[in-house]
Amino acid sequence: MVIALVLMLTLGTLLAVLWRADGLSGLGAAEWAAVRFTILQAVLSATASVGLAIPVARALSRRRFRGRSILITLLGAPFILPVIVAVMGLLAVFGRNGLLNDAIALAGGDRISIYGLGGVVLAHVFFNLPLAVRMILQGWVAIPAERFRLVASLGSSVWLMLERPMLRAVLPGAFMAIFLICLTSFAVALVLGGGPKATTVELAIYQAVRFDFELGRAALLAAVQFGLSIIAALAAWFITVPEGFGAGLDRVMPRWDGATIMARIADGLAISLAALFLIVPLSMVIIKGVIGLPDLPASVWSAIARSVSVAAVSTLLTTVAAVTLAMRGGRAVTLASALPLAASSLVVGTGLFVVVQPMINPAKLALLVTALMNALMALPFALRVIAPAFERVETDYGRLATSVGLRGWARVKILILPRIRRPLGFAAGLAAALSMGDLGVIALFATSDQQTLPLLMYQLMGSYRTDAASGAALVLLALSLLAFWIFDRGGRADADA
Amino acid sequence: MKTTLTHVAGLCFVATGAIAETSTLTIYTYDGFNSDWGPGPQIEANFEAECACDLEFVAAGDGAAVLSRLKLEGANTDADIVLGLDTNLTADAEATGLFAASGVTAAYDLPIEWSDDTFVPFDWGYFAFVAGKDVEAPTNFRELAASDLKIVIQDPRSSTPGLGLVLWVEAAYGDEAGSIWSELADNIVTVTPGWSEAYGLFLEGEADAVLSYTTSPAYHLIAEGDDSKTSWSFEEGHYMQVEVAAKVASTDAPELADAFLAFMATEGFQSVIPTTNWMYPAVTPAAGLPEGFETLVTPSTSLLLSSEDAAAKSGPAIDAWRAALAQ
Q1: Taking a C-beta distance cutoff of 8 angstroms, is the pair B41, B48 a contact?
Q2: Residues 6+ away with beta carbon under 8 Å from A2
Q3: d(CA A411, CA A236)
Q4: Å between B56 CA and nearest CA of chain A
Q5: Does any CB of chain A come closer than 8 Å to the CB of residue B148?
Q6: Shortest Cα distance from B189 to chain A (angstroms)?
Q7: B65 contact A CB<8A
């Protein structure tokens, strides 16, 4: 049922668009250039994000310090920010007129420009580093405490015996998720790419749908995007080697390794640099937002109410869908965790519109469709977090549970849910925050008095009200983080992290 | 608008039951037109005061997206009027056969002759680079290209002003447009998907100037009391944007649609335009333009390709733009 829905929303909408198109037009040289650029930037962005995330995740996994849990929550912020807000924050630091360039100029150097491939990768790392850190951190946290003891008593290396196999299992998935996210990037690539050489497939789709109205070309481009994603998913699937740690007693224990001075310095450096890289641009968003708060129109309240409702519904949908799929396991999970990421939200939106419009005024479904779309887009992240945890519980305790006759809902409730609380909370938090910040397809469907918070922000920006837009961005950031924190906190209420 | 939390929480996933009005006029327009700060709400109130009808604006992206939306819906559309296309889109719009002539005309204060009985103009403006007054202003594209000045522009493939700029260079330079773009390449900091992002970057200090309108400084002057912005006057002349509305052929309220198109040329519509849409009204209101508009740059030459020319030339012009900037 869930799988059917995912298929319908991703591939079905593509077919709907194709059906509405007047014919297939081929792809020109410009479109193929866009395909090449898209792959290049996605590979670079995913490599950089995952590569930089490893030392940060390791440092976070073996250090305990004051504010660690707040830091982990904050690290998630860029990922859930509306793209343009995050880009503005980045530019306040790395832009021509940003802090970094001011510092360089003060030191007598020449101002540097981040526009171009470098800027695109920088922004994608900013967005995805936190996600990579969290995914890899989950891997570290999941190594049973008993394993560490065993390795210690044998006097062998934690890296060789535990960490390397864990990374081998976790990294391909993390790489693929980020590769797919960057594959459908649109505004980041264009704004920071510096010009038409930084055209991505998603921009070409946007152009085809909204500007040229060539639905055939849009559908073809969307198919190319799916093709690329399937290749990436297959590659990741072949490379991944399942980890085989076996069961532990389900406890967390303090780490003794990495106690040397060098390791402490390296860990401190990794955490500080990552925090600095992520938090300084965010602070700029906050500072500008505070200045803009008084300029916010009264309609911000109703926009907040709409966004919160949409986020609530979409979180519920995502969580239920993710748990259902995780119970099924196998190929269903692989499919559902890749397809929505590969889908162009514009094609999905247009497809839904084509299907819905002859029957009912699309504006009447605007918020429902937005919640559904946001749930679809958050599903891969939720699954990626929940499914491995689910699987681990099943491998570790499944036979025991079966032997005592624990089945059906009781099995989920007694065995699984308590053990996947933490990932479940994290997944729900992600879904809520993503949904809050996502513009989604609301712009395609809504009338102007149905605006959600992100839509209101864009409207403010589009009518010279940049200060008020910054204020709206701050409200959005605060709400997203709050939603994330509530769920994430709920998930680890009894944990010591 | 009902804005209480309970209302929204309770009803937002249910269609709010449509109240059976005697006649409803549905107008598709771009986002900015019907935002809280745009002309939409005031114009709606003014027209409803005299029409005994219900006017409903439906915002659907920018001008090009509005046209795409109409094409997507075809004759099945709820729209009675589409408002906010510009002359670069009208040939394409005409060709769809989805629009009907209204025959509405008025004494327009446009810098060009207007004769089109389908598309009725409601406001207009000149594209221009908006910059701080402290920046030394170039006087033409070549001077800009030779300078170290940095500009932000919009992508002609996703933005109406972006397309306007490409056609501006095309109208001014013809066959040489490609070489102008090559020379401009090192002045362009970046290209954004839409106007909002570009203007935001400019206000953040990422560039010396941004492609916008000669009327943009009026916003800063009148709404913010900030007179530090100006626009560069170019000797080649400035490309115009004339924004139009038209009746949808499949409308179920043709008389009401005609009445609205006629209303567009009157005070109730035109007096709202200058300080909400920040464009020139198509018919100057009796009280004249708001104070502050006299400070704006008025180009000596107005450039505008006919809608047929614009439609025929925009494809090749965008290709030339892309080829020059993708080096």
Answers
A1: no
A2: A321, A324, A325, A336
A3: 31
A4: 9
A5: no
A6: 6
A7: yes
Which DSSP symbol is given to B75? G
B155 touches chain A (CB under 8 A): yes
The per-residue DSSP string of A276-327 comes to HHHHHHHHHHHHHHHHHGGG--TTHHHHHHHHHHHHHHHHHHHHHHHHHHHH
Residue B19 contacts A where some CB pair is shorter than 8 Å: no
Of residues A196, A306, A365, nearest to B322 (C-beta): A196
For residue B212, give the nearest of B164, B177, B263 by alpha carbon: B164
Separation of alpha carbons B315 and B33, rounded Å: 27
pLDDT in tens, A4-61: 788 778 888 888 887 777 666 667 777 888 889 999 999 999 999 999 999 998 888 8
pLDDT given for residue B253 in this prediction? 92
Interface-testing mutation among B191, B216, B278, with chain A (most A C-beta atoms within 10 A): B191
Does A309 contact B at CB distance below 8 Å?
yes
Residue of A nearest to B191 (CA): A195
Q: What is the pLDDT of residue A441?
A: 67
- Helix A261-292 crosses helix A117-141 at what angle (to 10 degrees)? 120
CA distance linking residue A439 with residue A451, whole number of Å: 10
Binary contact (B57, A447; C-beta < 8 A):
yes
Interface contact A91, partner B, CB < 8 A: yes
Predicted-complex ipTM score: 0.80
Q: pLDDT of B222-245, one tens digit each?
A: 999 999 999 999 999 999 999 999
Tell me the C-alpha to C-alpha distance, in Å, between residue A257 and each of A61, A64, A260. Answer: 11, 13, 8
> What tokens does A145 get?
């405490």
Rounded to whole angstroms, the Cα distance separating A412 from A390 reads 10
CB pair distance less than 8 Å for B200 and A88: yes
Tokens representing B235?
A: 């000797």
The structure's pTM equals 0.84
Chain A residues within 8 A of B61 when measuring between CB atoms: 210, 443-444
DSSP lists the bridge partners of residue B240 as: B126
Q: What angle do CA A394, A429, A454 make, to 5 degrees?
A: 145
Question: Mind listing the pLDDT tens digit of every residue in chain A (497 residues)?
Answer: 777 788 778 888 888 887 777 666 667 777 888 889 999 999 999 999 999 999 998 888 888 888 887 787 777 778 777 777 888 889 889 988 888 888 888 888 888 888 888 899 999 999 899 888 888 887 887 777 777 778 777 877 777 777 888 888 888 888 888 888 888 877 777 788 888 888 888 888 888 887 778 888 888 888 888 888 888 877 777 776 555 555 555 555 556 666 678 888 888 899 899 888 888 998 988 998 999 899 888 889 999 999 999 999 999 999 989 888 888 777 777 777 778 888 877 788 888 888 887 788 777 788 888 888 888 888 888 887 788 788 878 888 888 888 888 877 788 778 888 888 888 888 898 889 888 877 666 666 766 667 888 888 888 888 888 888 889 989 988 898 888 888 877 776 654 44
Go through A273-282 and write b for each residue having 16 or more CB atoms within 10 A of its CB, e for each that does not. ebeebbbbbb
Residue B304 in contact with residue B126, Cβ under 8 Å? no
Residue B146, phi-psi category: left (phi > 0), alpha (psi -120 to 50), beta (remainder)? alpha
Two tokens at A320? Answer: 């239920």
Instruction: Check residue B11 and give its pLDDT.
Output: 40
The total of other beta-carbon atoms located within 10 Å of residue A429's CB is 28
CB A20 within 8 A of CB A353: no
Residues of chain B numbered 210-249 and touching chain A (CB < 8 Å): 216, 219-220, 223
Q: Which residues of A touch B56 (CB under 8 A)?
A: 447
Beta bridge partners of B99: B248
